[in-house]
Every structure is written in structure tokens, then in C-alpha cells.
């Protein structure tokens, strides 16, 4: 069949078709098939709205399977009840961020201090102290910050996560900070956005441990800046 009859060159079709067939054989084959059928019906495709089930209590005990240090993996969430606060659905493409940035003069000295604008108040805190500072504003953590339950819901629809969000590679989950049973250390979970599947990793917030690069990002549910602050 000539390109004139198709209205498009056959070689322009082969690449996308091969890619589509490979996706039909991949780990997210059911999502791709569902969306392809929806596409053929000319329906709206690839919704970035994630639904979160907050009807069940979130158990305080967690096992940190992927942890940035060796040793026992059992930990207790500081605020498991926070996991049931927040929207039951939100648009992943509209996640907002409260960002703290390194204090220049302290960064030159090698100190991990960050500045945080919170409700018009500017403060400088170490990465491990950032969570402690945020807990003085419990309504913020409880109502705005993403947590483990949100991450679990996002993992189930990982294929739908916008590429702009995936470009961050890691998404800190400040609502899910836990204390390791063996040594009392605080650990911050974050959602890994690399590859074809999402995973939850943990990193120590102790000053003696290497601070994770994106620890100063505070992902929030989609809201206006005025509502978040």
C-alpha cells in the first residue's frame, strides 16, 4: 500500500506500532490495553488523577525493605494517623512543592542547613531538624504533605505519573517519617520515580548520615500557594 493511499508514510507507522506491541507485553500491559481501547473510542486518555483509599487505619509498624544504611529494618511511624488525612483523589500533574534552599554561607562551611519560608517566617534548620520544625505546624504535615498511602496509590498507576514529575527521580514523603526501633533514628521515606515501577526507599535524617539530595523538597497536595502556607 502506497503512502499516498494511507496519507502517511508506512515507515512512520512501524516505529510507534512496534513500541505499542512491546508495551502490550510489558508489566503494565493491562493499563496500556485499557487506554488503547479508550483511545479507539475517542475517550479521554491517561488520566493523571490518582485515587487514595483512606478508609482503613494505617498500621504504625513498617519494615524498611529498601534502606540507605545497614542494620535492623523495623520502624514505627511517628504519625500513622496522618496517613488518613488528605484528599481521596488528586491530580499528580498538579502536585505543588514547598522548597527550602541551602543557606549560602553555611553551605560553604559544609553545614547542611536549609532555609524555609513558612507562613512568612524564615528559618534555618538542618535536614534532620526540618521535620522537627514542621511538626510544630502539625496541620501542615497532616493536611498537605504526601505520605506512604499516597505513594502506594501512585505506584499502582505508575505508568500515569507525568514525565515532569518523574524527572525529579525521587519524591520525599514527609508525612511518613519513621523511627527505627533498634537505634531511635529518624528515617524519611521517598518514592523512587525511575524505571518502569515505583519503589519506596528510606534514608536517615540523622546529621551523621548522608542527607538525601531531595530532602529539602516538600511535596504537597495540589492547592494554591496561599492554601499551602
Task: Give a structural overview.
By secondary structure, the chain is of the alpha+beta class. It folds into two domains: 38 residues; 180 residues, no CATH class. It has nine helices and 13 strands. Strands 2, 3, 9, 10, 11 and 12 form a six-stranded antiparallel β-sheet that branches. The protein has a three-stranded antiparallel β-sheet with strand order 6-7-8. A two-stranded antiparallel ribbon has the order 1-4. The longest helix is centred in the N-terminal third of the chain and has 15 residues. It is elongated and about 65 Å long. The protein starts with a helix and ends with a helix. The C terminus is likely disordered.
Fold topology:
Elements: H1 3-6, H2 10-24, H3 29-40, E1 49-51, E2 61-63, E3 74-77, E4 89-91, E5 96-99, E6 101-102, H4 104-108, E7 113-118, E8 121-126, H5 127-134, H6 138-144, H7 148-156, H8 163-166, E9 170-172, E10 178-180, E11 186-192, E12 199-204, E13 217-220, H9 225-228
Antiparallel strand pairs: 1-4, 2-3, 3-10, 5-13, 6-7, 7-8, 9-11, 10-11, 11-12
Question: What is the structure about, briefly put?
Answer:
By secondary structure, the protein is of the alpha+beta class.
Question: Number of DSSP strands?
Answer: 13
Considering DSSP H and I runs of 4 or more, what fraction of the residues is helical? 25-40%
Mean pLDDT: 76
Number of helices: 9
Q: Give the overall form.
A: elongated
For the sheet with most strands, the description reads: 6 strands, antiparallel
**What's the number of structural domains?**
2
Beta-strand percent range: 15-25%
Structural class: alpha+beta
Ranges with pLDDT <50 over ≥5 residues?
A: 207-213, 224-229
Backbone CA Rg: 21 Å
Distance linking N and C termini: 60 Å
Write the element-wise H/E pattern from the N-terminal end onward: HHHEEEEEEHEEHHHHEEEEEH
